[in-house]
Specification:
This protein has twelve helices and twelve strands. The protein is of the alpha/beta class and 308 residues long. The chain is globular, with a radius of gyration of 19 Å. This is NAD-dependent dehydratase.
């Protein structure tokens, strides 16, 4: 089967490509960085170097393939996160429509349908394709963003998936306290990217007649329970997950010079997680949990923690 994997060699895309190749599929990996070409080829996949912002590139790459795993990387440099997400989703839709792709698996998030104006899942409804929406919980790999914080003061405060180092530095500062308006005793579904990849690999080989939504998780617990597991792995079993109010979070983001609309969106996303609505949706769908538990990931985290 000819399959496109977007997301370069990211936390989900790399293990997904490896799984699909092991199954005997012909896999093409889309990456915007030309330096990833050799690494993609070493996996046994075909590299396609280009941007999802380029509709012609996407259309040409999608031509002749049977299935596409589509993801939109978050951008914390975009003043209007919702506008950016909609533009990228529309690029996908136009390219997929022109290419006539039969099977599409779209990466979303477990809060996507609850954040006003940010959900792009519906944009794919007009396609004459078999579509599955993946809604994973909070990634284990987000903990890597808190290494400096844990080393400094022994606190955790999650801030989604930050890859923008300048913002990260501004938020953590010298206090060792990262701002987050969910945490403490909030119950969260955490998920391993490997379990997401396994679920996506399963879905890509199916062809449901109607659009389906699949929630993905590995383990459910409170944020403080997760903090204890991570803390114990690095010799800090007293580690706590600090919870701030929405107002405190918004003020902190504005102090970090984040565009106001983007700051408000990020606060809303975390507030929804704090409210428990995401967990209610997850339970309502009754998904089977994945294999990778937080104690497994904590061992990998500890290696990275002590290297830094």
């Amino acid at each position: 089967m000819k399959i496109i994997v977007t997301g370069s060699l990211g936390n989900i895309s790399k293990p997904l490509a490896e799984m699909l190749i092991a199954q005997g599929n012909a896999v093409t990996v889309i990456a915007s960085d030309p330096q990833k070409k050799a690494s993609i080829e070493n996996l046994g996949a075909t590299p396609a170097i280009g941007s999802i912002s380029d509709i012609n590139f996407l259309t040409n790459t999608f031509n002749g393939v049977e299935a596409v795993y589509a993801m939109i990387p978050l951008s914390f440099t975009e003043p209007d996160l919702g506008g950016y997400m909609h533009r990228m989703a529309q690029n996908y839709v136009q390219a997929l429509q022109q290419a006539g792709t039969k099977r599409i698996v779209l990466l979303s998030g477990w809060a996507a349908d609850l954040v006003k104006g940010e959900n792009v899942e519906h944009l794919f409804d007009g396609l004459n394709s078999s579509i599955t929406i993946m809604r994973p919980g909070s990634f284990y790999t987000n903990f890597y963003q808190s290494i400096d914080l844990i080393k400094g003061k022994g606190f955790i405060g999650k801030f989604l998936t930050l890859r923008y180092s300048g913002l990260w530095a501004l938020l953590t500062g010298k206090t060792g306290l990262l701002m987050g308006n969910y945490g403490g005793e909030d119950r969260i579904v955490f998920v391993s990217p490997n379990d997401i990849a396994a679920a996506v690999a399963e879905e890509l080989l199916l062809l449901p007649k109607e659009k389906t939504i699949r929630y993905v998780g590995s383990e459910e617990m409170t944020c403080n329970e997760a903090a204890k597991i991570i803390g114990s792995a690095v010799g800090k079993p007293w580690l706590k997950w600090v919870l701030l109010s929405d107002k405190e979070m918004l003020q902190g983001l504005k102090m970090a010079k984040l565009p106001e609309k983007l700051a408000e969106t990020l606060v809303e996303m975390q507030a929804i997680m704090h409210s428990g609505k995401t967990l209610e949706n997850f339970h309502r769908n009754k998904p089977k949990m994945g294999k990778v538990k937080l104690t497994d990931f904590a061992k990998e985290f500890a290696v990275a923690y002590h290297k830094k």
